[in-house]
Amino acid sequence: MDKYWLERTELLIKEEGLEKLNKASVLVVGLGGVGSFAAEFLARSGVGNMTIVDGDTVDITNINRQLPALHSTIGKHKVEVVAERLLDINPKLNLIKINEFLNPERMNEVLDAGKFDYILDCIDSVTPKLKLLIAAKRKKIKIVSSMGAGGKSDPSKVMVRDISKSQNCFLAKQVRKRLKKEKINKGIRCVFSNELQNEESLKMTDGTNYKRSFYGTISYIPAIFGLYAAAEVINYLIKKEN
């Protein structure tokens, strides 16, 4: 097994680009509809070191939008399903699996242990998302954060901007408001859609895992969020000075 599987990538980004990606260390937190696709795009680009974090198992309701979710994987841990797939893409990938929902205490521990070049925040609940963003900002680690993919259906409205420029996204609004209390008003890249959310697709929940409600989702929107997040990271790593 050699790097010929990256032959087409090398034509585009040259050997120097491949080397930068191979040396890079990236953390993906959350392996749902956004994070699972982001992790796959990172692996297929040749990123050499990755840590993936998620404490959830595959549920039948995940099948409409999440890469690890199949009828054959229901009940399995997302971290294990995604890890197997990533190592099948690149057997030489240095992969660390963390099968847990990161609580605030563990967040600092994980960030300190990793020497990460970039973090992808693909968490869909506000409190853990905020803790990760604040920790990354305080430790001066680059981070791209995925905002709300629910209630949206127009892929042309998805973009990456500073969080201060996000609009028409309830999750981004909540995150901005709470970051402001921490004196953080800008300096975090985020993926969001400025399409108005479909209010009729909202469903309330019992509040487990920090989630009080969720919006309906369609197969391709979380995937395009993951694509934009991965592209942001890959393009940064290629351009990064050694």
Automatic annotation (TrEMBL):
Alphabetized InterPro entries for the sequence: ThiF/MoeB/HesA, ThiF_NAD_FAD-bd, Ubiquitin-activating_enz
GO BP term, pick one: cyclic threonylcarbamoyladenosine biosynthetic process
THIF-type NAD/FAD binding fold domain boundaries: 12-240
Keyword annotations from UniProtKB, A to Z: Membrane, Transmembrane, Transmembrane helix
Transmembrane domains' residue ranges: 218-238
GO molecular function: tRNA threonylcarbamoyladenosine dehydratase; ubiquitin-like modifier activating enzyme activity
Presence of keyword Membrane: yes
This protein's name: tRNA A37 threonylcarbamoyladenosine dehydratase
Protein's organism: Chryseobacterium soldanellicola
